[in-house]
Structure formats: structure tokens, C-alpha cells
TrEMBL record:
<dbReference type="InterPro" id="IPR012312">
    <property type="entry name" value="Hemerythrin-like"/>
</dbReference>
<dbReference type="Pfam" id="PF01814">
    <property type="entry name" value="Hemerythrin"/>
</dbReference>
<feature type="domain" description="Hemerythrin-like">
    <location>
        <begin position="17"/>
        <end position="130"/>
    </location>
</feature>
<protein>
    <submittedName>
        <fullName>Hemerythrin domain-containing protein</fullName>
    </submittedName>
</protein>
Length: 186
């Protein structure tokens, strides 16, 4: 079942680790295409959705994919380091993505190029190595974990926005903190 987050689109694709991350790639590619073809008045919203999608995906990879890659795949540490460099380049392109800039198409194309390199490296090299080295139950378990993490992350922007609009009063904050803190802490 695919859950939909109104702000970012599909999350929780329902597969193993490789299927989850591959589906994330397709989601991001669809958003890149939509952003490329969007009229200027729709760009800001699509850029925000793309940013959330890519950040959620990259965090899932950093937390779940790269540690497994380092531990279970020959040459995995170097591969993970290379992917982290690509993610850094992608993040730089995201920071430069100004939807109102005259050179917006060039900036978007640069982001798409960097993301395409990321996708090709993972889908043609890393994912086959993972399928070869990891048992299927482990891949399924990691897929479920990534799916749950992404669903959780998809709710964070709305929660942060709500908290920004309705900050707790200091007394409420202290009461909430004490209620959640084990008694032996104070």
C-alpha cells in the first residue's frame, strides 16, 4: 500500500531495501520532471516537495543503506563515501535552486544531472551488490525499517510548522518535559 503525504507525495512503497530506495528515485525523478515543466507560479511548491523528498531519501540512505554497505559489501566503505560526496553535491544544488532566478532551468538541470549520477551508481552498481551479498530477509527487514522511517520523517515538516505557529508556554513546556522524564532524572 502506498501512503500519500500531501506535501511530498508517495511514501512507503512496500518493498525490500532496494525496492524502497529505487521507488524513492522514481518519485524524485517525477518531481524533477514536474518542476522542469511547471509554470513559474507552481515552482516554489514543487521545489519544496522535491527538497523534502530528497532530504528524506538521503537521510534514509545515510542511516540504513551506507552502514550496511560498509559492513557487508566488498569495497563498500569506498562506495558509501562516493555516494556521500554525490549527496553533498546534490545538497549544494538544492541550496542553489532559486525558483525565481533567471537561470532557474540551468540550476534545475545541474541538480537533475547530479541526481542522475547518484541513481545510476546505486541502481547499476550498489543495489546489485547488495542483492548478491545480503540475504533476502535482511533486505526485507531493512525495507520495512526505511519505509517506517520515511513515513515518520514525512510528518515532521507539518509537526514543526504546527509547533512554530503554536509554541508552548514555558510552564507547559516544563510540565510536558517533567511528565516525559523518568523521576530519577530530577
Amino acid at each position: 500500500m502506498i501512503a500519500t503525504d500531501a506535501s511530498t507525495g508517495p511514501v512507503g512503497h512496500g518493498g525490500d531495501l532496494v525496492a524502497e530506495l529505487t521507488a524513492d528515485h522514481r518519485d524524485a525523478e517525477r518531481l524533477l520532471e514536474a518542476l522542469r515543466d511547471a509554470p513559474p507560479e507552481d515552482r516554489e511548491e514543487l521545489a519544496a516537495r522535491l527538497t523534502t523528498t530528497l532530504v528524506r531519501h538521503h537521510l534514509a540512505e545515510e542511516v540504513y543503506l551506507y552502514p550496511v554497505l560498509r559492513e557487508h559489501v566488498r569495497g563498500g566503505a569506498a562506495r558509501a563515501d562516493k555516494q556521500l560526496q554525490q549527496q553533498s553535491a546534490c545538497a549544494g544544488c538544492l541550496r542553489e535552486l532559486d525558483t525565481t532566478a533567471q537561470d532557474f532551468p540551468r540550476r534545475l538541470a545541474a541538480l537533475a544531472d547530479v541526481f542522475c549520477l547518484h541513481v545510476v551508481e546505486e541502481e547499476q552498481r550498489l543495489f546489485p551488490a547488495l542483492r548478491q551479498e545480503l540475504p533476502e530477509p535482511m533486505l526485507r527487514s531493512l525495507g520495512a525499517t526505511v519505509r517506517q522511517a520515511e513515513l515518520t520523517m514525512s510528518s515532521l515538516p507539518a509537526e514543526m510548522e504546527h509547533r512554530a505557529e503554536h509554541p508552548p508556554q514555558m510552564g507547559e513546556f516544563l510540565d510536558d518535559t517533567r511528565a516525559e522524564t523518568p523521576k530519577y532524572w530530577y
